[in-house]
Amino acid sequence: MRYVNARTVAIVAASLFVASSQAQDAAQLRKDLTAVIALQGLPCGEVVSVKTQGDRDYIASCKDGNRYRVFVNAEGRVIAQKQ
Questions:
Q1: How far is it, in rounded angstroms, from Cα 44 to Cα 81?
Q2: Bridge partners (DSSP) listed for residue 52
Q3: Closest Cα to residue 27, out of 49, 58, 57?
């Protein structure tokens, strides 16, 4: 598991959960999850699909075949775990 500093988490978390329409939401969510995974130094390239597990909890499938669970933990940190 890798952690990102608090400022980066705040910026990414703010953009991770805000959008205006469903089509834009999906595209923006893929971009945000791609950024979260990259900021944690994990290989992905680009998130191509997302499955919502719960509130602020996603399974992101990457173009390179990797899959990650991206979620906000109890301490408020954004975490990406390889699946």
A1: 12
A2: 58
A3: 49
Q: Which residues on neighbouring strands pair with residue 58, listed in sequence order?
A: 52, 70
The string of pLDDT tens digits covering residues 20-73 is: 456 568 899 999 999 999 999 999 999 999 999 988 999 999 999 999 999 999
Q: Which helix (H) or strand (E) holds 70?
A: strand 67-72
Nearest Cα to 64, choosing from 37, 39, 40? 37
Give the other-Cβ count within 10 Å of 18's Cβ: 10
Residue ranges per structural domain of the chain: 6-82
Which pTM does this prediction carry?
Answer: 0.72
Q: What separation in angstroms does the CA of 14 have from each of 24, 29, 35, 64, 66? A: 16, 11, 13, 26, 25
